[in-house]
Structure formats: C-alpha cells, structure tokens
Amino acid sequence: MSENLDRLEKCILLMSSTASDAIVEQNQRRILDLMAAHKVDYIEIDGANPDNKEKRNELFNVSKSRGKYPQCFIEKEGNIRFIGLWEEIESLVENDSLPQEILSANPDMPTFNKIFSTVHRLSSPSLSLSLSVASPTDTAPTSLPPSQTQTQTQTGTQTDGQTPAETVSENLSNAQT
User: 118 near 9, Cβ under 8 Å?
Assistant: First the structure.
C-alpha cells in the first residue's frame, strides 16, 4: 500500500498563521474546509514560521506570488506545480458544477476533480493531515523528509485579464513543459 501512496501526488497548502487581514483568514478557512469536504490529503506549511522560510521561499518561487495566502500546489516525485491562490481553487470547484454538456464540449477546461484526481484522498475528512515543515536539520516527526525538500520548480503566473480557470490551465500547461 505504501508503494501505491508514493505514486500519488501530494497537495501542499502554503498558509500563514499571522494572516494579514480577515479576507486571508476567511480564504484559508475555506480552502481547509474544501480539502476536508473532498477528503484531499494535504500538507500545510505555515509561511509565517521562521523554520519554514526556505520551503516558503521555494514555493513563492514556483508560484511567483510572494506573500499571498493561501496558495495551493501539487507535488509528485519532487516536481511542484502551482495550482493557484484561493480564487483559482474556487473557480475549479465552480467548473465542476457546470452542466455536463459544457464540460464535454470543453474537455481541456480545468476542474477541481480533474486537477486533484491523482492526489491522495483520505477515507475520512476528519483525518486531514496538517503539518508544519521544520528546518531540514530538524528530525521531528512533523518535518518533511529531505527528499521532499529538494524540488524542481515550475513557474506559474497570472496574466492580467485572465479568469482564475484560465490561470490554472496556464499554470498546468507551464508545469508540463
């Protein structure tokens, strides 16, 4: 079973325990609630924790969105893809509820279920994994193993005038090239 879990993608949520405003706090709660409702297993990284500075900066380099929270990524075999900020994730969920004929006519339209189809799911939404990544020298059980701290970055940027779904689609296209 462990071998099968290793092949699945991992969701990484970059959050901040010192959110700058009520909207950021609300969006962080929403993304956590969404992941729990969809039983998505995730690793939560507190970007405000000084011990996570290296990992936070690595994720900021992938997303090109420094200091914005929450951010969602998917990692597989050391490759990290930026999925989006809360607005893009919310758009993916909205796309899932479009009529089937629209989704069928637009097979490349990103949806939450498509993007997260290969991410490990929990059998119970109450068992969500929430870890704070410690420094690479820390041996506490909540730190990621060194193999997960060395990642290959991909870029994802939002172009002015794009919808969140277009941004996610572009981020995923960039990650595949």
Answer: yes
